Amino acid sequence: QMADPFLYNTGERSGYGCLGHEVQVEHIKAYVCRPSYFTDKAVIVVHDIFGWTFPDIRYIVDLIAGHGYITICPDFFKGKDPWKTTDHWHDFADWMKKHDPMKVDREADVVLKYLKEQCDAKKIGIVGFSWGGMAVHHLMLKNPQLSAGVSLYGRIIRDSEERYNLLNPTFFIFGEKDHTISYDQITLLDEKLKQHCKVPYKIKVYPGQVHGFAQLKPEDMKPVDKPYIEEARKDMIDWIKTFI
Predict the structure, then answer these.
(1) What are 44-69's pLDDT values in tens digits?
(2) Closest CA to 148 of 61, 27, 236, 32
(3) pLDDT of residue 84
(4) What domains are there in the chain, each with its CATH number?
(5) What is the C-alpha separation between 102 and 241, in angstroms, rounded?
(6) What pLDDT shows up at residue 18?
């Protein structure tokens, strides 16, 4: 039984004027932002339960593009409704069954093909938040085309020892006060990765931070959280820059 999975109140978000544009990639809509100069490096951003049009996630796409990456956030829900602030938490388990973060392989392949063939991308990384963090963990076990991954507060699923055999460097970011992920789970993840993982990985827990902390826009941050949010984002970008 899960507690209310997301403490942060999405109803109090400011709007956001995006820098990128929307494209259709085969059966998927996607939001793309490119840097002002040519690059052959790209990053896929996997949205959280609030979907690919949510202002916070578009802000993150633009932020990563500003560091010199073709950045794309596809609609991994394929047109199905994202979670809405008016939805009831007791329906969340059913909603999750219809929005499985382990069933993203086909969409990831479509987007990888688009980045390589239409955007001339040679190296591609992936970053995901919450629901998207779970998807990133899954894809970093399955898809060797992804050169590096960052999973931000994705709930940790322990279905087998194969879950720790990452194909490429992966960074796991957590908030200390995230009530969906216990500290014990994070410690166990670390122990298991030490045993099974053959590529570089990193786990970092940010003091005092709740679920969803790293994707807030500047005007939505509380001053006490701002240094940790900025640090998490810098760490995320640095990880991508190290490997892509």
Answers:
(1) 999 999 999 999 999 999 999 999 99
(2) 236
(3) 85
(4) 21-243 (3.40.50.1820)
(5) 26
(6) 82
Where b means 16+ CB within 10 Å and e means fewer, 186-195 reads beebeebbee
| C-alpha to C-alpha distance for 125 and 232, rounded to whole angstroms | 17
Low-confidence residues in the chain, pLDDT < 50: 1-3, 7
DSSP string, the chain: -PPPS--S-GGG------SSEEEEETTEEEEEE--SS--SEEEEEE--TT-TT-HHHHHHHHHHHTTT-EEEEE-TTTTSPPP-TTS-GGGHHHHHHHS-TT--HHHHHHHHHHHHHTS--SEEEEEEETHHHHHHHHHHHH-TTEEEEEEESPPPP-S-GGGG--SS-EEEEEETT-TTS-HHHHHHHHHHHHHH--S-EEEEEETT--TTGGG--GGG--TTTHHHHHHHHHHHHHHHHHH-
Task: Give the tens place of pLDDT for each residue, 67-98.
Answer: 999 999 999 999 999 998 778 888 888 999 99
d(CA 45, CA 209): 21
Is the pTM higher than 0.90? The answer reads yes
Q: Residue 3's pLDDT is what? A: 47
pLDDT value for 52: 97
Q: How are beta strands 21-25 and 28-33 bridged, if at all?
A: antiparallel
**How far is residue 114's CA from residue 136's CA, in Å, rounded to a whole number?**
18
d(Cα 194, Cα 209) in Å, to the nearest integer? 25
Residues 211 and 227 sit within 8 Å (Cβ to Cβ)? no
- The CA distance from 11 to 15, in Å, is 11
Phi, psi of 59 (to 5 degrees): -60, -45
